[in-house]
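Mods, move this if it's the wrong board.
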Amino acid sequence: MAKWTVADIPSQTGRSAVVTGTGGLGFEDALALARAGAEVILAGRNPVKGTEAADRIRAAVPGARIGFEPLDLASLASIAAFGERLRTGRASLDLLINNAGVMVPPARQLTADGFELQFGTNHLGHFALTGHLLPLLKAGTRPRVVSLSSIAARTGKIGFDDLNGARDYKPMPAYSQSKIACLMFAFELQRRSEASGWGITSIAAHPGISRTDLLHNAPGRGSLNSLARTYLWFLFQPAARGALPTLFAATAPEARPGGYYGPNRMGEMRGYPASAKVPPQAGDRATAAQLWQVSEDMTGVRFA
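Not the wrong board. Structure tokens:
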């Protein structure tokens, strides 16, 4: 695994992938997969940005099989419609990268369905999406689901008594909760796949500290987070480097089912893909099972 790069991605010819998020890490994931020969569906909520991203990949990779599909992870109706379109239009799916995310909006915001925006988008949205695409993944060839966590998950905890931050919303703890939820979902999905014979490999990854627009978008350009991203840019590794753990988890034959990968240097903030340290709370199977049940109840999506 030493200094693994996109040059080490095996041929993805004949494989199909859905990547959520059209900029930053999602764009780099889609670009690398398209270069390796995969058919890629780039999914995001902004049709203009999504179409532009797909066009940029076609320009960089002549003959790339890349398309854009609208998907708003903050809307269960949009997720269900996306799943319906894909199940109607294709017979299988080989790879799902649950990448898109929202980070630290300063004031509490809600999704279309009344969930706190970070928990609702980062975890519940991808939980529902994976459930809707489960039939296609089960029919795929060596199917994988890669879920994006964060080094912020280290301080995350699941507050079942206030998942939506209605009583006490704090931006970073809410983000950390959403990202430990993503990690626990990845581990629980692997366990359930093994127990139910779904044949799906579930792996988690995190990008370290990467130079994307995540810290500009939700907090706002004048926030401390955004200013740090702008003026301390040298602390952030390029998005293409930050995407490597995800791409390793998505394509490398040696990526371990139920594994967790991140950068290998500076406390996992930057570097090449390596096994990441799992926060102790992420290994709590009882909490993971409870989170799964609560997520099914909140989204109405069952993994039957």
